[in-house]
Amino acid sequence: MKLLNKTNLTTSLCLLGLSIFNSQQLMASSSYLSSAQVQYTITASNRNLSGNLSSLDISDLFDAYPDDSDTQSLTSLFTPIHNPYSGLNIAHSNQLTTQDTINNGSATSEYFADFELNFKNLSADITDIFDITISYTLSLSTQANGEHADTDITTNIFNRNDDRLGGIALTASTNTQGTDTDFLPGTLNITLEKGQVETIYIETFVSSSLEATGVAPVPVPAAFWMFSSALLAFPGIKKLRKA
């Protein structure tokens, strides 16, 4: 079997080192993760001391969906979690989580969530007047990673007359701050007389954009260049020794 001479050996080792370096190339990616949670507890009382709360009707509705299906990223995901209303003085929560990851190209995604609390005074007695308190906390978190990623998330509270009662907004970007969290506690007070109704709307909107160019090279370690230089100088050193 013919053995490799020193020149061929040096060349082979250099090519091997380069192949190892090339195998360390990583796929560039961009991703985001946004989450909004509403936690609330409802308490109520009747101004009619001889009455009760049996005529106070409370129901809820939670819906989440892509806001614009025409431009929606095919890889984006959303996860709604609905904890249905089950009674007074009980802690409830609803949550929307959205995310996306791409390795090449660009992608946008938008999601919307609508949470409604409906209140009705069904009493036939004019003296039954219900005072209702909603104690809530809005919690938002955002995370953007990778080559280029931006995500915005907002949550706002409205009543039946479209009066804004509270709100919170967050932005995360790989160009600025990659992660962010915030929360907003508060209370809402409602008074319902005979036959009156009220609805509280808590709306969440998420918008994101991602870009990735494909391959992201790994920085070449200094040790690799030192190793390569030594290999390339090896034949010259041998010639000097012979001389």
How would you characterize this protein structure?
With 243 residues, this protein is an alpha+beta fold. The protein has one domain (26-213). Helices cover 16% and strands 55% of the residues. The strands form three sheets. A five-stranded antiparallel sheet has the order 4-5-2-7-10, with no helix packed on it. Strands 3-6-11-8-9 form a five-stranded antiparallel sheet, with no helix packed on it. Strand 8 and strand 9 (164-173) form a beta hairpin. The longest helix is centred in the C-terminal third of the chain and has 21 residues, at 222-242. The radius of gyration is 31 Å and the shape is elongated.
Question: CA-to-CA gap between the ends?
Answer: 30 Å
Number of strands: 12
In terms of DSSP E residues, the strand content is over 45%
Parts with pLDDT < 50 across at least 5 consecutive residues: 18-25, 236-242
The portion of residues assigned to helices is 10-25%
Strand arrangement within the widest β-sheet reads 4-5-2-7-10
Q: How many whole angstroms does the radius of gyration measure?
A: 31 Å
Number of domains: 1
Shape: elongated
The average pLDDT is 84
The helix tally amounts to 2
Helix/strand/pairing class, anyone?
alpha+beta
Give helix and strand order, one letter per element, not per position.
HEEEEEEEEEEEEH
Task: Please sum up the structure shown.
The protein has 243 residues and is of the alpha+beta class.
